[in-house]
Amino acid sequence: MDATAVIGMSMRWLHIFSVVILVGAFFYTWSTRSVIASSFRMTLYLALLGILASGTYNYLTKASYPPHYHMWIGIKFLFVLHIFAVAILYTLPDASEAKRSRWSATP
Prior knowledge:
mainly alpha; 4 helices; globular
């Protein structure tokens, strides 16, 4: 196995692992309706950075793309920006309960 394959596989696992952390944080805040603990904030920020870095690496190292892929990557990118914004807003300790309910779409 050459170094490029090892880096590619590592980036893929970093992407998957970071998404699992992010989805777990969303599920936790949605089910408990509580604030993300201050000790977990740095982990969440590192997960966001891991998703951004590994996603960019995976996008830039792919050899070719099918037609209309750039439209889909644009849609995915807008979706990711929304998820990142909500994840960062969840970490705000002084947000009201009404705002948290609106961010998580719970009544």
